[in-house]
Amino acid sequence: MSSRMTRCRLVPLALGLTWLVLGLQAVADDPLAHVSEADLQAAQATLDEQVLPLLRQYCIDCHNSPFSSNSLDLSQATTAKQFVEQREIWDKAISKFRAGTMPPEGEERPSQEVATAMLDRFEALLSTLACAGPRDPGRVTVRRLNRVEYNNTIRDLVGIDYHGADDFPSDDVGYGFDNIGDVLSLSPVLLEKYLAAAEEITSRAIVTDDPSRPRRVRLEAEDMQSTFDYKGAVNGAFHLYYPGEVYGTFDAPAAGPYVVRARAFGTQAGDEPARMELRFDEANRQTIDVPVTEEAAEVYEAKFELIAGKHRIAAAFLNDFNDAQATDPQRKDRNLAVDYLEIEGPLGLEPAAVPESHRRIIFIQPEADTVEGCARMVLKQFATRAWRRPATSIEVSRLMRVFHVATEQGESFERGIQLACQAVLVSPYFLYRIELPPGEDKPKSKRGKDEPPAEDAPPGPLNPWALASRLSYFLWSSMPDEELFKLAEEGTLAEPAVLEAQVRRMLADPKSQALVENFAGQWLQLRNLRIIEPDRGRFPEFDEELRAAMRSETEQYFAHIMREDRSILEFLDADYTFVNERLARHYGINGVAGPEFRQVSLAGTQRGGVLLQASVLTVTSNPTRTSPVKRGRWVLEQILGTPPPPPPPGAPQLPDDGGGPLTGTLRQRTEQHRTDPNCAACHRLMDPLGFGLENFDAVGAWRDQDGADPIDASGELPNGRTFAGPGGLREILVGQAADFRRCLAQKLLTYALGRGLEAGDRCTVDEICQSVAGSENRFSALVLAIVQSVPFRGPAAASEQ
After folding, report:
1. Crossing angle for the helix pair 482-490 and 496-508, nearest 10 degrees?
2. I want to staple 292 with a disulfide (CB 3.0 to 4.6 A). Which of 32, 260, 296, 588 is the partner?
3. If we measure between CA atoms, which residue out of 593, 659, 594, 602 comes closest to residue 625?
4. Phi and psi dihedrals of 227, rounded to 5?
5. CB 597 within 8 A of CB 556
6. d(C-alpha 14, C-alpha 648), whole Å
7. Inter-axis angle of helices 737-753 and 762-773, to 10 degrees?
8. C-alpha 177: how far from its chain's center?
9. How many other CB atoms are there within 10 angstroms of residue 430's CB atom?
10. Which residues pair with 144 in a beta bridge?
11. Which segments in the chain show pLDDT lower than 70?
């Protein structure tokens, strides 16, 4: 068997299996139906003259049969239609050709210039042909709010600083992000958390008991305590036959004036009427004569100034009189009887200031005859904002039932609203982002007599409310604000000029920090920084202050590019960064004092771009040493968008120390490790990139030596390009700007849509990249191209179609 055939067998089997699967799929429609005959002839001429000869010279000898050892047949595609139908295979083939992994090492290769020119023309040709017809926008699974989105939505909906969702079960991650609908499940534990959160949120947001509002509490005779050793309640009154008192307790909600009332009468005898003393605690007393008898019992009152809190309230009998020898009943026995004690207050206070959250929800106060109408208005507005689309009259009526249950049991207006708002917050319409086409403001769970939509009905664009939500959760990780709601209601949000103006407004808003923390935090894997624990013995300079400074640098760097609308290529290389004193000392930058971050020049340093920032260098290292493999893989996945295949089962790991059969510097041990044929194919892609970063230790500090040995930070890529040190690697990456632009576009589009990209999204990514390249690679151009794309504006939620 020839050496050529042996090497060809090393082509990853997965690629061949993908080819076989795709080859069995029937093509229902002509993919070139929308291409003119002239364009088709021109495309075929390009294929015949420029592409097919190179394929025959460098590829077909190995890839010439679906049953050959490499399982990948590239010999059957000869027409433009066949190339378009098999675009997924060709995209992967082009990627491998660009990376230099094909043709295999030792085989005849075209020059770099010839290969680049041919691949550029080939890619442009595929894109032009495949993207000529109507676009399938794809489907997005109905998504529940993730933890960050829940916290932010409560903040903007209710107006309280809420972080309770941090205690929810962790959100699953798909395609690198935690806002992907396919993986955001709802467990029983999470459902319980939602119920408890709704209670906590509404209790904090809505004041149900205004302490300034007068309240009246009555203690009946049967409920009073006394200083006597007998039960004195007879016929509804407590009879005091001896000096002493009856009493109870009262909890004053606020400081202010209170009135105490006692309905009392006396059994009169002697020369003076029965005398009663009303008491609050020990210091507040007022004496009142009670000259009436039971038939004419009266209500007596006294006013006191109280502080908030619990108090003892009492009515005391002061002037007992008894003449056992008297024959005249009116001279014989004097007693006091108390029917009840009543406390009312505080009186005359201005209404207490309620929090902004209360005023935001209960924006109107009802009169006695307007309770029903006010409650309906309050609940309609709250539900509309919470559900991010107009609440229907039927839905509001259902919420009113909850309100009525509360008020019919004696609860206040505010308490009824509070309970109804809890129902809003546990509704699927709040917990899930349900995106619908125009003409539908809510899902049709039961279509009644309506015909169900045809299974092959084309997907419609989002309705304005769903578009507003998709836009706000993309850029703010939260609900739309009043301006977006207003434009949705007017139906003008989808107009290109309006949409562009809103994108620019939202990127300038402080809430766009959510894009920094959530997109950049996951794209650059900054979130892993909080769990990384470098060996403090080997890296004593690493502490929590430095950890925080590392993350802050990268976040401020991303935010600067975003808000200043700079080129996205500055993520790869720039002559500035943001540091405070702690991080500047770590980098060896002089003249920076204090904890505040500020922009500094990197002139004269080896740094530039996110790859050479300590945050990324730390999360791509092991606790005890650097990892060229992790760093190389990170570059391939997060910068170039060409992730290597997973390691084969049983692939050995490189030990953290220098012991064992592998010796020398880390680079030397890594090179010895990849001599294993099972490891060589992948390491040939990753290791050179990681070697270029070896001048940075496991916490991102510069070094010239690995132990006693000098650092060798040179590398040779599979395509034959060489570089020396991090500066040379940076130049290589800047030279692959097109790959980075596509990678970032794919990741940001995935994040914006909340789903993984599909074959039909390639044309969208092509258009986004072209738009960004034609706009000086501005960050806003990337966001605008995504927002104006067919997948972002077009598809409604999959489960609702």
Report:
1. 170
2. 296
3. 659
4. -90, 10
5. yes
6. 12
7. 120
8. 10
9. 25
10. 432
11. 1-31, 33, 65-71, 98-101, 104-106, 133, 436-460, 648-665, 667-682, 795-801
